[in-house]
Amino acid sequence: MTTEQEKYVIEVEGLKTQFGDFVVHENLDLKVRQSEIIGVVGGSGTGKSVLMRAIIGLKKPSAGSVHIFGEDYYQADEQTRVGIEQRWGVLFQGGALFSSMTVAQNVMAPIREHMDMGTLLAQDIAALKISMSGLPEEAGAKYPSELSGGMKKRAGLARALALDPEIVFLDEPTAGLDPIGAAKFDELIVNLKESLGLTVFMVTHDLDTLHSTCDRVAVLAEKRVIACGPLDEVRRNDHPWIQEYFSGPRGRAALAS
Ligand SMILES: Nc1ncnc2c1ncn2[C@@H]1O[C@H](COP(=O)(O)OP(=O)(O)OP(=O)(O)O)[C@@H](O)[C@H]1O
Fold this sequence. Notes:
Distance between the termini: 38 Å
Strand order of the largest sheet: 6-7-8-3-9-10
Bound molecules: adenosine-5'-triphosphate
Order of helices and strands: EEEHEEHEHHHEHEHEEHHH
Largest sheet: 6 strands, mixed
Shape: globular
């Protein structure tokens, strides 16, 4: 019986990715449920970002499949793929904002690209997304170079939310933020999930973020997902990397708080 809990919006099966002869993932499986926040962790170079890129169509797998909303993304026709892409938003590391555009213009870019909408309405929607991302109204008129690191992340999030996505992909959203800024960003993500029912796929190194936001954690090692489940369950796994990560001094401090 399929319950709402078991409805998967992302299903990665038998994934293999490689750059030339260098294999990043082999036989990797991962399923993401609707309206959950899943945190993807793993040592540096284990392929967290490449996994995210494989799911969003930026790194074609050499084997395996990626189903999004039940559709086989890489086998789908162009129209289906574009339809799927409009249902997700992505926040890349550093925000990846267009530097020659204001924040509002950045947020309007996907709206203008994908929706047939007049400028005034697009401006109103951009203003709403900017406010949802916790930026003051006047931030809309600023250029990325005039923003702090935390504001850039929020602006990137506003753009990721532009098309009312069902899934957002976040690549290390709290990297480079001070602890207070990072905690506020965590809170924002949880609020968005709760108010909009968003599914969040988040690559992170941040133990505090994992602890305060994620419903489940997926651990990448040995080219695949070696453990996936609630944090309390995963941290009991006796894989050496997991033990070192969660039971080292930083892990203990984050989990004790
Ligand atoms: N465009 C590319 N060409 C060749 N190799 C690449 C490319 N992109 C990534 N790789 C390699 O794939 C592996 C996984 O990279 P990825 O960026 O996914 O790691 P990561 O787990 O996100 O690491 P980090 O935590 O350090 O950001 C690394 O060995 C990296 O060098």
